[in-house]
Design a protein that fits this description.
Layout: E1 7-10, H1 16-26, E2 31-34, H2 44-49, E3 57-60, E4 63-66, H3 68-78, H4 93-115, H5 133-146, H6 158-173, H7 180-190, H8 193-205
Parallel strand pairs: 1-2
Antiparallel strand pairs: 1-3, 3-4
Helix pairs in contact: 1-3, 1-6, 1-8, 3-6, 4-5, 4-6, 5-7, 6-7
């Protein structure tokens, strides 16, 4: 693989859908490698890319990046011409990072814990970063309600891709409650051309994946 080549490792039934959308937003050329679940993801070749034996991952300029939120942040900075991240001294950089990390941390943990039936009792809420499922979702709703039209106001960013994907997936699978702020933001996100291209590509890859 040439160092300048951007390689995308994914499975269409994974969080790789988030990264595919982000790649489409950057406009950068990339090569897709679809990995089947099971032994293929635990092979030495794939473990050399991601020791967790999971997708998504990207390879770019001799660097491997895993974790969907980190990949989104990396791509936004690697392709600044797409305008998907505020620069380091922009006041919007703080809110941008805040929502990225909030979705990757408290929201993801709260949704997973609820799905597994392992939410802590109220008296133990202080032991977990999300406090309670309702608290995490309420704060997420505040973010969605303030998205006018995007999290950073008129400026669309990688935070909309990653945080918005959590909402989009959550509404589709019932892990996030339907609330007007969520559904309105999700509709705006689904209207983006890059979102549509990414969805079409992943949907087309579904029959070949397992």
């Amino acid at each position: 693989m040439a160092d300048h080549e951007l390689v995308f490792h994914t499975n269409p039934m994974s969080r790789g859908r988030i990264v595919r959308w982000m790649l489409e937003e950057t406009g950068a050329p990339y090569r897709t490698v679809v990995h089947d679940y099971g032994a293929a993801m635990k092979s030495p070749a794939h473990l050399a890319i991601n020791p967790m034996g999971k997708v998504p991952a990207i390879e770019h300029r001799g660097v491997v990046v895993t974790e969907a939120a980190a990949i989104c942040a990396y791509l936004a900075d690697a392709f600044p011409q797409a305008g998907l991240a505020p620069v380091i001294d922009d006041p919007l950089r703080g809110p941008y990072l805040r929502w990225l990390f909030f979705a990757a941390g408290p929201v993801e943990a709260a949704v997973t814990a609820r799905a597994l039936g392992s939410l802590p009792p109220p008296e133990k809420a202080g032991f977990v970063g999300y406090g309670s499922f309702d608290q995490a979702v309420d704060v997420l709703e505040q973010a969605a309600a303030s998205a006018s039209p995007w999290l950073l106001g008129e400026r669309f960013s990688a935070a909309d891709v990653y945080v918005g994907s959590q909402v989009d997936f959550g509404l589709a699978f019932g892990s996030i409650p339907e609330r007007p702020a969520f559904t309105a933001w999700a509709e705006r996100l689904r209207g983006r051309e890059a979102y549509r291209r990414a969805k079409a590509a992943d949907d087309a890859a579904m029959p070949a994946a397992s």
